[in-house]
Design a protein that fits this description.
With 266 residues, the protein is an alpha/beta fold. 33% of the residues lie in helices and 19% in strands. The strands form two sheets. An eight-stranded parallel β-barrel has the order 1-2-4-5-6-9-10-11, surrounded by six helices. Strands 7-8 form a two-stranded antiparallel sheet. Strand 1, helix 3 and strand 2 form a beta-alpha-beta unit. The protein is globular and about 50 Å long. The chain starts with a helix and ends with a helix. 42% of the residues are buried. The structure holds SN-glycerol-3-phosphate and calcium ion. The site of SN-glycerol-3-phosphate has 9 residues, from strand 2.
Length: 266
């Protein structure tokens, strides 16, 4: 039905079905974000990819966690991840805040997440700290033993993107580029051509942007003409997901992978 409607509207059905579904912090609508419960639930829901956030602990172990401190999702104590050892972090409850069902769910290491990636699927690793993590990331990815194409790195920090690409040129890297709309002019800042130029200067493979109303087929084609991939976050609205997929976007990050997958008719 969806395909028929789109075909009759002249939209590109091939692009619609090609969009990669990326489960944001795992299946985080249903399970506690950045835990093995949430990552494994996303794979069970047949997502194409999972996104996790990572930090370096005090003793240089890479853990999956979104916030700078463990206050919101790590049991309540407002202590930065970087000031806690892995042993200390492992004692925390990263599940109860979401639901009693997930009480005691631990903070996973990257090394615990990597083996969960099924064949043919990949993990988007968002680096939340600075380039100091890169040598440890390289070591963990080597230890994890997954094929190069099964992981990729994203970061708002362009220095991280540049450094990852220099250290591991074979790894796909997408720069998370922020844009805001000027209320008076209606222009997006920075402009798309500036984002493209920056992504190229750091040798990123693409852009990953917050989804917005002006992200359309023209926007997508400008990015692709520059030889870059284009991903977006975080889309939980099925109508918006269909519009973005039809515009030809490479990937859609969502808290609800199964729901959005069904919506775009994948
Ligand atoms: O996938 C990119 C997105 O995760 C960036 O924002 O705050 O959810 O990490 P945030
Ligand atoms: Ca993230």
């Amino acid at each position: 039905m969806v395909i028929a409607m789109i075909a009759s509207s002249g939209l590109n059905t091939k692009s619609l079905h090609a969009a990669e579904i990326v489960a944001h912090r795992g299946a985080s609508h249903d399970a506690p974000e950045n835990t093995l419960a949430s990552v494994n639930l996303a794979w069970e829901k047949n997502t194409d990819a999972v996104e996790i956030d990572i930090y370096l602990s005090k003793d240089n172990q890479i853990v999956a966690f979104h916030d700078k401190t463990t206050k919101r999702t790590g049991g309540g104590q407002d202590i930065p991840i970087v000031e806690q050892t892995l042993a200390e972090l492992k004692k925390l409850d990263a599940g109860s805040w979401k639901s009693p069902k997930y009480k005691g769910e631990p903070i996973p290491t990257l090394l615990e997440v990597l083996p969960t990636i099924p064949e043919g699927k990949r993990l988007f690793i968002e680096v939340k700290c600075g380039p100091e993590i890169v040598p440890f990331l390289q070591a963990d990815l080597a230890k994890g033993g997954k094929a190069t194409e099964q992981t990729c790195v994203i970061s708002f920090n362009s220095d991280v993107c540049r450094e990852v690409k220099q250290t591991m040129p074979e790894l796909k890297v997408y720069w998370l580029a922020g844009q805001r709309k000027d209320k008076e002019t209606g222009n997006w800042e920075p402009a798309l051509n500036e984002l493209i130029a920056k992504a190229q200067s750091i040798h990123a493979d693409g852009l990953d942007v917050r989804a917005h109303e002006d992200l359309d087929a023209n926007y997508v084609s400008q990015v692709k003409a520059a030889g870059l991939g284009l991903y977006c976050y975080t889309v939980n609205n099925p109508t918006e997901a269909k519009r973005l997929a039809a515009a030809g976007i490479d990937g859609i990050t969502t808290d609800r992978p199964a729901f959005i997958r069904k919506a775009i008719g994948k």
